Automatic annotation (TrEMBL):
GO molecular function, one term: DNA binding
This protein's name: Tc3 transposase DNA binding domain-containing protein
Name of a matching Pfam family: HTH_Tnp_Tc3_1
InterPro entries: Homeodomain-like_sf, Tc3_transposase_DNA-bd_dom
TM segment ranges: none
Tc3 transposase DNA binding domain segment(s): 3-48
Species this protein is from: Chondrus crispus (Carrageen Irish moss)
Length: 110
């Protein structure tokens, strides 16, 4: 399930104030419209900095790299590990195997 936006300073203050009023986690989460887990994680360690989202840049392998990999596989008897080392690809051996097996005109064998 996707992560929601980070807690704002105002929400953090409200969570602390409601918690000091002995309000339950569930009631605090309903009041603020946040999940119980988010409230609970904050109360467990209020001084902890907010988690940053993972920086997703898209695919690691470019179309050009994928074509080069398929060309290399069709020209000879190379293993996925050999292809990875020769072309210096930023993906794992298993991903290379998956791409080669999904290529319709290429019969990939171990």
């Amino acid at each position: 399930m996707p992560r929601g936006p980070p807690l704002t300073d105002l929400e953090k203050g409200q969570i602390l104030a409601l918690h000091h009023q002995l309000m339950s986690l569930r009631d605090i989460s309903k009041e603020l419209g946040r999940s119980v887990g988010a409230v609970q994680r904050f109360l467990k360690n209020p001084s902890r900095p907010a988690r940053s989202r993972a920086h997703v840049t898209g695919q690691k392998l470019t179309v050009r790299g994928e074509k080069a990999m398929i060309r290399r596989a069709t020209t000879g008897n190379y293993s996925a590990r050999d292809i990875k080392q020769d072309l210096n690809l930023p993906v794992g051996v298993r991903r290379i195997q998956q791409i080669l097996s999904a290529t319709p005109h290429l019969k990939y064998r171990k």
